[in-house]
Amino acid sequence: MVNREQLLKFIPKPKNEDVIIYDTELSDLIDIDVFQEYEKTIYPFLNKQQEFHLIQAKIKEMEKFVNNVYLFNTSWSKEDYLIRLKNAKKTYSTAYKEINKIENNISVLNKKLDVMNEKIAIQEAKEKKRIEDRKNTIDEEIEEDKKTLENLKEKLSFYTLHKKILNKEIEKNEEEFNFLSKMQADLKKGEYQCKFCGCYVPVNTENSHIYKRLEKNFAENKSDLNNLLNKQEDVDKEIAFYENEISKVKARLNNNIEFKKESSNFYIKKTVEVLKLEALRDEIISNISEQEKELKSKPQLKSNYYTELKNNIEKYELSLQNLDKIAEFKKSIKDDINNYDMLKKELTELYNKLNKYKSFITIYYKICERKANEYLGNDFKFKLYQFDDLVFKPIFEVKYKDIEYTQLSEEDRDECNKIFNEKISIFY
Questions:
Q1: Nearest in space to 4 (alpha carbons), one of 387, 390, 291, 386
Q2: Cα distance between residue 17 and residue 29, in whole Å
Q3: How many CA atoms does the CB half-sphere of 317 hold within 13 Å?
Q4: Helices (H) and strands (E) in the chain, counts
Q5: S-S: 399 plus which of 143, 175, 328, 381, CB 3.0-4.6 Å?
Q6: How far apart are CA 206 and CA 187, in angstroms?
Q7: How would you label 169-182 residue by residue, b for 16+ Cβ within 10 Å and e otherwise?
Q8: Which residues, at least 6 apart from 162, have a Cβ–Cβ distance to it below 8 Å?
Q9: Between vectors from CA 376 to CA 370 and to CA 379, what angle results, nearest 5°?
Q10: CA distance 385 to 363
């Protein structure tokens, strides 16, 4: 089956004058590439049209708001409301001095309550973020603490072993000291027996060579002991340090493991900071309640004059708020309003151009369709285009014997394809 492009290739292309002969109002397009101009114009038009509709919707929204917003008196200006509000409040504060004072207190307390609620929300958000951050890093912290604990235990084991070695050396030093002390005592008595040969050494004077040697050994023993004790003190400090570090890391590790197990419960637990803030909030709520009770006890609240004056003040304030909203709304779309008329003018010009191009393109394709129908026979009917408003869409619809091509029987479809192939074969 031939497609749209193939069909248009073997149909003689209509010239501009062929089109204009059907609509002389298009005569100014005689020397123009209409399809090219259409493409150059349609996209700016659609973009501007979209912008125009957005502005139009904003303006309608503003008009709807202005028409429906509450105003006590639509003819009053902002200054009119301010004067009436000032007078009404002055009358109110004079006639209902005590009530006004209580209402002001309630107003101040309500503002404090809003601030306190905001502080609580911020603090809770901080706590939640802290918990979330900790949850995200808890596994890394646990692994890091396990490694740290292992390293600390290794160092503690090293110093513990070192202490055992020092203790043995100190014991040897003590044994040596005891031996030397006994030797000294035996020498003084003249009863020292040599441990190597078993002979008694009859020396009992401190000026003897053996006695001086003994004193030298005593001095060396004492010096060695001091060194050993100093090393033992240093080792004890290291052991105490690492035992303390291990205790801290173990506590942190256990806390993290418990946190990981029960992290879901942390969200319902309130921190001390939040509890303090909530206590302050409860105190404010209690004060508001007391002020409201005192206010309700005032008999003036039941008078018609009070009700009317109070309502007028509220209506004046609401009207002033709405006037400000209207002014803000108008200010926010000031540029849009300025662009509205300019866009409208531009769109009108582009629309007129596109509408003329649309007429040209419509006639152009009608000529193409007629030529295709004539060339292939009266049993064929073609539709090569359609417009969605001003947007051109190329299509390819074929009818054979007034039946859509897709709905043809197999026999008619073969016949249709055969005629197509025969007619266009001379061009390919």
A1: 386
A2: 9
A3: 8
A4: 10, 5
A5: 381
A6: 9
A7: bbeebeebbeebee
A8: 235
A9: 85
A10: 11
Contacting residues for 96 by C-beta, under 8 A, at least 6 apart: 300, 306
Answer whether 0.70 is exceeded by the pTM.
no
Q: How far is CA 142 from CA 45, 132, 150, 154, 254, in A?
A: 64, 16, 12, 18, 9
What single letter denotes the amino acid at residue 341? D
Tens place of pLDDT per residue across the chain (428 aa): 667 887 888 888 999 999 999 999 999 999 999 999 999 999 999 999 999 999 999 888 888 888 899 999 999 999 999 999 999 999 988 888 889 899 899 999 999 999 999 999 998 888 888 877 777 777 888 888 899 999 999 999 999 999 999 999 888 888 888 877 877 776 666 666 666 566 665 655 556 677 677 778 878 888 888 888 898 899 999 999 999 999 999 998 888 887 777 665 554 567 888 889 999 999 999 999 999 999 888 888 888 998 999 999 999 999 999 999 988 888 888 888 888 889 999 999 999 999 999 999 999 999 999 998 888 888 889 999 999 999 999 999 999 899 998 899 999 989 988 888 887 765 55
In sequence order, which residues have a C-beta less than 8 Å from that of residue 89 and are 6 or more positions away?
313
Evaluate whether 307 touches 99 at the Cβ level (below 8 Å): no
CA–CA distances in Å: residue 66 to residues 61, 180, 321: 9, 114, 13
CA distance 125 to 92: 43
